[in-house]
Amino acid sequence: MTDPVSVIVPARNEAETIGKVVSVLFEMADVGEVVVIDNGSDDETAAEARAAGARVVSEPRAGMGHAVRTGIAATRYDWVMKVDADLDKFDTDLFARMPAARGPGVGLVKGAWHDPGDNMPMTRLLVMPAICLMFPGLGHLRAPNSGLYLFNKSLIAQDALVGDYAVDLDVMLRVHAAGAKVAEVDIGRIEHDVRDVPHYNAMAEMLLKFVLSRQNRHLTTEVVMMAQDAAEVIRHALGTLAAKAVAGGRVTIYLAQDQGPDAEVLRAVMAPYPTAQVLPLAGATGFAPGANATGICVLAPFPQAGESEVLDAAIALHNGVGDLASELLLVPIQKAGRVIAGFRPDTVTENEDGLEIKREALNRLEGMAVESTPQREMFQSYASLPEALRPGFQSVEKRPSAG
Question: Which segments constitute the Glycosyltransferase 2-like domain (predicted)?
Answer without folding.
Answer: 6-87
